[in-house]
Amino acid sequence: xxxxxxxxxxxxxxxxxxxxxxxxxxxxxxxxxxxxxxxxxxxxxxxxxxxxxxxxxxxxxxxxxxxxxxxxxxxxxxxxxxxxxxxxxxxxxxxxxxxxxxxxxxxxxxxxxxxxxxxxxxxxxxxxxxxxxxxxxxxxxxxxxxxxxxxxxxxxxxxxxxxxxxxxxxxxxxxxxxxxxxxxxxxxxxxxxxxxxxxxxxxxxxxxxxxxxxxxxxxxxxxxxxxxxxxxxxxxxxxxxxxxxxxxxxxxxxxxxxxxxxxxxxxxxxxxxxxxxxxxxxxxxxxxxxxxxxxxxxxxxxxxxxxxxxxxxxxxxxxxxxxxxxxxxxxxxxxxxxxxxxxxxxxxxxxxxxxxxxxxxxxxxxxxxxxxxxxxxxxxxxxxxxxxxxxxxxxxxxxxxxxxxxxxxxxxxxxxxxxxxxxxxxxxxxxxxxxxxxxxxxxxxxxxxxxxxxxxxxxxxxxxxxxxxxxxxxxxxxxxxxxxx
Length: 485
Description:
The protein is 43% helix and 15% strand. The protein has 14 helices and 15 strands. The chain has helices at 39-57, 73-82, 97-114, 130-142, 221-233, 247-260, 292-298, 301-309, 323-346, 363-370, 375-394, 398-414, 429-450, 454-466, and strands spanning 4-7, 12-15, 23-28, 61-66, 146-148, 156-158, 194-199, 217-219, 236-243, 265-272, 275-277, 280-281, 317-319, 469-474, 477-482. It has a four-stranded parallel β-sheet with strand order 4-3-9-10. The radius of gyration is 27 Å and the shape is elongated. The relative contact order is 0.11.
């Protein structure tokens, strides 16, 4: 099966053929760093990380760009609120806007790294690309698609009625759209016109304004992405991604201004679905939000990544209080098989793939991933392979167990699960120390069983269980694992 992805612009699944043979150019929207990352940010990053890893597995050289919006109305407002504010977990007193943005940018980077999201090829900041934004605005004015504000505010707007394709990404009619909320209508030809450049206003920091042909100011949100993506990927590229909530107005405006300036822009538009809480939209006002930090306090990074990446990227991912427990049980089944099979086949040492994983990737897994990145179906193949491997181990079928192990390692690798590890499975000093203590308890239990002191043997097992350590008796001896959840 050839690679096929759903394209939002055409509302259909299409065969994916890159613009340049053997290479893929991918841009997906990063964060506006006015606060700590929320679960939607991380789900999106994991979805496009899975896409990147699969494209790489299929032999493509992938150039990935993920932007950082480090100048924005919300960032300035939050900085202004901090002036004279008391310190808290989220507020630093008298924090300049650029310091606030950088602080939260680092929080995003930490969350991405913790959950095994590969660093993009390029991660440009908006503030580092002002000249490119000026050039794009100039092209749009020259082409008759943009104009300086009529009220001498220094704003520059995109003229939506000058571009007859405006609304095509989201299949909307201009007359049915609401006014653009990024500036008041006083200086606009049409309330729906959106800001490309925002003139500096009284009370705003002088550091948040750059000289321009239209006066001091700063870029509009939508303009930033268009200027950055074309710098790093060119006027036309393969895939533009982001959360479903960005389709309008952000992506609609990006596409309009770029194409109106003469750029082909994205060949595919891919959007990931939202995360809900028991069927409802997450909202701070009703208190049903859950953050990546909260998830990581309850489960390991490997479990959190599995949970956030288990649904089809276009579907809604619904969070429930038992979600992480269920994901933990699924990950434990995978990791227990890997541990048992490696112990049986290769001794106590961990073993990675000795040759290319393409030799072990099940065909059904590949077909699922090629079909619009169908991760749920791919995970079904993974778990079926785990079951087959356990059956082979129980039957003493080393060849079958080895084939299953290599296939499982290939699948977990391409899903990025090997980029994050379960506690006490990494072979580090903490694991070695814990293993030494537990092995001593298991030897005492073995001695008690040999002496037919069943009460003592059971007491040792119960004590380990109370500490969250499960013991499994196998023909090769007792094995232990941490109980997840």
